[in-house]
From TrEMBL:
Matching InterPro entries: Ankyrin-SOCS_box_domain, Ankyrin_rpt, Ankyrin_rpt-contain_sf
Keyword annotations: ANK repeat, Membrane, Repeat, Transmembrane, Transmembrane helix, Ubl conjugation pathway
Designated name of the protein: Ankyrin repeat and SOCS box containing 11
Entry's Gene Ontology BP terms: positive regulation of protein catabolic process; protein ubiquitination
Length: 370
């Protein structure tokens, strides 16, 4: 029965009844078709899951029996990995990055190659070090992982360990033969440690004979990087270890970087260690030119420059006073000697020459003081 807007029963004609019946049948058939599709997808998922479980159990059986070659073949079928090929994020990579030590052991036991890399040449050791998982990294190294393997971007496991700030990973990689100081074409681990403020990692690498003034073509010296990223602890340690206070990135000095970043403490540190306040970069600007007007940085630099000026002025003034005193004494002696007739004319000429020379020195010193 059909009702109108006033809830009154309305009698439908036969064609209308037939049309409404067909519409209901079409709607139910579409719903039934969708139900069948969902059921088929679910059945396929269950079937794949059952196959994977069965293959995993079979792999375990072969491992127990000691047939690792067959176990590796079945594992490759499970994960779809062709032997010797590159893979994007294999289960070995995932287990290493997530720190799943037992899963990593199982995969290695199944025959996975520990040096398997992705299309970007990222190995499982790269992932373990990036996650800071020391136990996983040690397991991979003990099973033959390449400690100095580099990605297409020149990233090494040691670089990733410095990136994560894991001192334990850094020490272990160095024990297994990692190179602390790499060529210019590879990313510098120590620069990454300084950039992220991982002072302990930096100290470990410096203890392994890394040059404290090592310069990276892209980032500059270690001290310059520390000033650029405002890593005060690293700046202090580098200065204590004798880093060149004026060596930065080409003509840009660490003081330029500190003034640009408005870091008062670092500016004071650099000045205390003898940074050149008047040094100019490629744009012919000194640190004071880069400081924000009326900022604490500007005040600190002006104060330091004022102290330097006063020091130089006082030394010049002292020299001038000393010379003036000697001139005064020499004039008295000259006047006394010229009153004595026994001194020859030659001696008087020499005395006048000395007097003229000392007068010139006094004039130069006075000009410098002014």
């Amino acid at each position: 029965m059909t009702y109108d807007t006033n809830n009154s029963p309305v009698q439908l004609s036969r064609p209308e009844k037939l049309f409404k019946g067909q519409t209901k049948m079409e709607g139910s058939s579409i719903l039934h078709a969708f139900t069948n599709i969902y059921f088929a997808i679910f059945a396929l998922f269950c079937f794949k899951l059952l196959i994977k479980i069965s293959l995993a159990l079979l792999t375990h059986f072969y491992i127990v029996k000691g047939n690792r070659k067959e176990a590796a073949r079945i594992a490759e079928e499970i994960y779809g990995i062709v032997p010797g090929s590159w893979a994007d994020r294999s289960p070995l990579h995932d287990a290493a990055f997530q720190g799943r030590l037992l899963s990593l052991k199982t995969l290695i036991a199944q025959g996975f190659n520990v040096n398997l890399v992705t299309t970007d040449r990222v190995s499982a050791l790269h992932e373990a070090c990036l996650g800071g998982h020391v136990a996983c990294a040690k397991l991979l190294l003990e099973n033959g992982a390449q400690v100095n393997a580099a990605t297409i971007d020149g990233i090494t496991p040691l670089f990733n360990a410095c990136c994560s700030g894991s001192v334990a990973c850094v020490n272990m990689l160095l024990e297994f033969g990692a190179k602390p100081q790499l060529g210019s074409h590879l990313a510098s681990p120590i620069h990454e440690a300084v950039k992220r403020g991982h002072r302990e990692c930096m100290e470990v690498l410096l203890a392994h004979k890394v040059d404290v003034d090592q310069e990276d073509l892209q980032h500059g010296t270690l001290l310059y990087v520390a000033c650029t990223y405002q890593r005060t602890d690293c700046v202090k340690k580098l200065l204590e270890l004798g880093a060149n206070v004026n060596a930065g990135k080409r003509l840009d000095s660490p003081l330029h970087a500190a003034a640009r970043k408005s870091t008062v403490e670092i500016v004071v540190l650099l000045a205390d260690y003898g940074a050149n306040l008047k040094g100019r970069n490629a744009d012919f600007k000194c640190a004071l030119d880069l400081a924000v007007p009326n900022s604490k940085i500007e005040q600190a630099l002006l104060l330091r420059e004022g102290k330097g000026f006063l020091s130089s002025s006082s030394s010049s003034l002292s020299l001038s006073l000393s010379l003036s005193f000697f001139i005064f004494i020499f004039i008295l002696i000259e006047q006394y000697l010229f009153l004595l007739p026994k001194f020859s004319t030659d001696f008087k000429i020499v005395a006048r020459a000395y007097y003229a020379e000392i007068s010139n020195l006094c004039f130069v010193a006075t000009s410098a003081a002014q």
